Amino acid sequence: FACVIVNMISLMCGILGGYIVAVLMKGQSTGVYWDNLFIFASWFDPLFCSIKALLYGLVIASLSSYYGYNVQGGAREVGIAVNRSVVNSILVFIFLNYFLTTLFFNLVQL
Hints:
The protein has helices spanning about 1-25, 30-40, 45-70, 75-110. The protein is mainly α and about 110 residues long.
């Protein structure tokens, strides 16, 4: 669940950063900023981001635990297991991201 919390903090920081740049630095009105924000982003976006972050965290933790638990040997084998864990986590992350994004875009269009 830490992935979801970090994801929400990063979303809030991004919105706050956009507000600071648009309103405080560039002089855009507050109403225009919020109106344009909700034109391009829906209320489903934070929900989908949280679901994706939760699934990414589960996948990465599961793969890392699997490789770490099943390692046999010494320090060299641990290094190999860590390498396999990282490489497989990245590959699964890329494929999972593609399928989840496609699924969520199709759900929003309904």
